[in-house]
Amino acid sequence: MRRITVFRLCFCAWFLLSLPLVLASSAARQPSSQPKTDIIAHRGASGYAPEHTLSSYRLAACMQADYIEVDVQMTKDRKLIAMHDATLARTTNAETVYPRRAPWRVNDFSFAELRRLDAGSWFDPRFAGERIPTLEEVIQMLKAERVEAPLYIETKQPGIEEAVVHLLKKHGFLQQRRVMFQSFHPESLQALRPLIPYGIRLIQLVGKKEAHSGRDELLQQIAIYADGIGLPLSVVTEEWVRAAHGRGLIVHVYTVNEPHDLARLCTLGVDGLFTDYPDRPGRIAACRRLLHH
């Protein structure tokens, strides 16, 4: 009898300890009643590593982001690089290395000159020595490490579309539809349309001022040449999402890092959100599944 009691106590303890895992696994198998919201790694996992570096992209892949965003610019000698800002001052040591070349505009430098810069120390000393990568280096890393997440490319300047498309074709990303494009420049998206296969999406980014200028007219214009709209977090409402979906446009939102914002946007039915922390939505969803059971 004593052995049976001990066995029962052990079994109950094991059951209680394993219950959260069982519930999480069960919940994961349940079909969701809500459409999936894509998680887009904003400049990679830029909350944990310096933006637009190979470390940031690798981390985003490890966190299983649905897309990895890459801002693309062209250097003075026409190399495509991953860089957000128009100048180098914020995310590199350009002011120290090239003190007489203010305001340190990206397109005033050759790629060889950019290669001398440290693009990691500004974020944390642990990333000292990180370099500005070319778009091709990003693609090659994703292929070599068998990363499934597609690229989400923002063309930062009009006129680079053919070069970007050529590079993506070279590595099979266009043929496999492992890419999406966005831009603040309508002319850039319009230039891309005849260059890319059917089914690859184009997203028109808009700022706060533009979003407040007249929703219906704006959506009508965008629907002519694009597949979706990229909205700043502060303007997104249920009415915005409904109006965009009514025009056949998907809605992506930037930049969403706080748990309450993540929850609200998923409830509103947005199609994707940019976040500096690609692991947070997954952690929040797992906690919710446990709580609901």
Q: Could you tell me the strand content as a percent range? A: 5-15%
CATH architecture: Alpha-Beta Barrel
Name of the CATH class: Alpha Beta
Cα Rg: 22 Å
Shape: globular
Order of adjacent strands in the largest pleated sheet: 1-2-4-5-6-7-8-9
Order of helices and strands: HEHEEHHHEHEHEHHEHEHEH
In total, the number of strands is 9
The average pLDDT score comes to 88
Distance between the termini: 34 Å
Structural category = alpha/beta
The biggest sheet, with number of strands, parallel, antiparallel or mixed sense and barrel status, is: 8 strands, parallel, barrel
Put simply, the count of helices is: 12
The CATH superfamily is Phosphatidylinositol (PI) phosphodiesterase
Helix share, percent? 25-40%
Q: Examine the coordinates and then state which fold CATH places here, giving the name of the CATH topology.
A: TIM Barrel
pLDDT under 50 segments (min length 5)? 1-33
Domain GP-PDE: 37-285
GO molecular function: phosphoric diester hydrolase activity
Keywords: Signal
Signal peptide: 1-24
